[in-house]
Design a protein that fits this description.
Length: 464
């Protein structure tokens, strides 16, 4: 198992100040870095054309500089340490201190110039997923450009021609680099800020990792059996809540760069799919839903009015995607009395733990786990364990959440009489309906007598 110090030393040894010339360094825009895993406030544009900024869940937006009418950004591809949730950190690859990298926001028609400096131990590139641009800027190593070698800086330049929601990621050793967390979000706002305007606009990527319990670095050759399903490289309870004001029109944009689809489900509200990475959907093509399936490489933008107060769950509806480091080979022991077996095994394996023979609550099982390993489902709510992990968070709708305020308002205070409660009365006797089964299954000995006549088919000469 490699330590974080070992992890960084190999990459750092390949990158030094001498690899970028002084003349080149003088023309490069600054490359800000972010180490906090908390959701950062929206970046109000300091210059350029106005737009309504987005909020990246557990992320941030990359600042830019204006240079003769061109928006210039600087991305650093580098090893990063990402806190997946309190109690676990991972050695990943990302951009500007984080994985995923910072969101890039521009306006339709902007000329954009992105400097990409490689501080990884191998070559890389960036593909601008879904963008219309010159072929030589598309970022596929070997097809559209040579790889960006360690220590080198490449420049991508194009016009943001189409408003919408996009992603960026490598097309260089991508099985490794994307499995290590190299990806980010891109939003091109419409020229008219009134077009597609909403009150709250959240963005994030869905990603997955295979990090063995007790280790720090993902297994990059995994294709199917991932054990950490994350929202912007964070697992619940490390995922921030989405905090909105009652009556707000809310948009949530989610991009999927995992290896499987995710049926994303919102409680308490219905929504419409208003955008994909192909553009905005026409109003006549929309319909109400509470779950939308996001396939691999797709983005979905959903919109709804936050009408109902409360703390509403938002999650992937694949149940194992709302768990954390769970093995796939644990047998189902429900209904099996294994008390005697468990006692014998415990004498040989002191840490042995029975997986519930009556179902039990997996979130409450106190299994011994290695350091730097997330328990399966440990999120706590106002009534106890939420028993969720992974791709799960909460939409918090409040009357007094001020416009532009994204702070967590705490747990919802339910009005009297609006919480499910225990029935204290006597349980009713179990009564079986006398008509159960209808005429097809009459009670034994009480059914009507039925005379059956078997007729010989015409021309049949055999016995009957």
């Amino acid at each position: 198992m490699s330590s974080r110090r070992d992890f960084f030393s190999g990459a750092a040894a390949l990158v030094g100040a001498g690899l970028v010339t002084r003349a080149g360094a003088a023309t490069l825009p600054e490359a800000p870095s972010m180490s906090s895993a908390a959701t950062q406030p929206p970046l109000v544009p300091p210059n350029g054309r106005p737009y309504n900024p987005v909020v990246t869940l557990n992320g941030w937006t990359l600042p830019w500089r204006m240079n003769n009418g061109v928006k210039e950004f600087h991305l650093i591809a580098e090893p990063v340490v990402r806190e997946i949730a309190p109690g676990m950190k991972a050695n990943l690859w990302g951009y500007n201190g984080q994985s995923p990298g910072p969101t890039i926001e521009v306006v339709e028609g902007d000329r954009v110039r992105i400097f990409v400096t490689n501080r990884l131990p191998e070559h890389t590139s960036i593909h601008w997923h879904g963008q219309r641009l010159p072929n030589g800027m598309d970022g596929v190593t070997g097809l559209n450009q040579p790889g960006i070698q360690p220590g080198k800086t490449f420049v991508y330049e194009f016009v943001a021609r189409r408003p919408g929601t996009f992603m960026y990621h490598p097309h260089a050793d991508e099985m490794v680099q994307m499995a290590m967390g190299m990806m980010g979000f891109w939003v091109t706002h419409p020229k008219d800020p009134r077009q597609h305007a909403v009150d709250r606009d959240f963005v994030f990527l869905l990603n997955a990792y295979d990090i063995e319990p007790g280790s720090y670095t993902p297994r990059v050759n995994e294709m199917t059996d991932f054990n950490l399903w994350t929202i912007n490289s964070r697992a619940f309870p490390g995922v921030d809540t989405m905090n909105v004001r009652q009556g707000d029109r809310v948009r949530i944009r989610a991009g999927n760069l995992t290896m499987t689809n995710h049926p994303i489900h919102l409680h308490g509200h219905e929504f419409e799919v208003t955008g994909t990475d192909g553009g905005w959907t026409r109003p006549e093509s929309r319909w109400p839903e509470v779950t939308t399936d996001i396939a691999v490489g797709q983005m979905r933008a959903i919109e709804f009015v936050a009408t109902d107060l409360g703390d509403w769950a938002f999650h992937c509806h694949k149940s194992h995607h709302t768990m954390n480091a769970m093995g796939h080979s644990v047998p189902n022991m429900i209904g099996v009395d294994h008390r005697g077996v468990a006692e014998k095994i415990s004498k040989l394996v002191p840490d042995y733990m029975v997986m519930g023979d009556k179902g039990g609550s997996m979130g409450e099982m106190e299994m011994p786990i290695p350091d730097n390993t997330l328990p399966m489902m440990t999120g706590q709510g106002p009534f106890g364990g939420v028993e969720m992990g992974g791709m799960f968070t909460v939409l918090k709708v409040r009357k007094d959440q001020k416009p532009g305020d994204y702070k967590d308002p705490g747990w919802y205070k339910h009005p009297a009489g609006t919480v499910a409660y225990e029935w204290k009365g006597e349980a009713p006797a179990v009564v079986r309906s006398g008509s159960a089964g209808g005429q097809a299954m009459p009670a034994a000995g009480k059914g009507p007598e039925v005379e059956v006549t078997v007729r010989k088919p015409a021309g049949h000469q055999g016995h009957h």
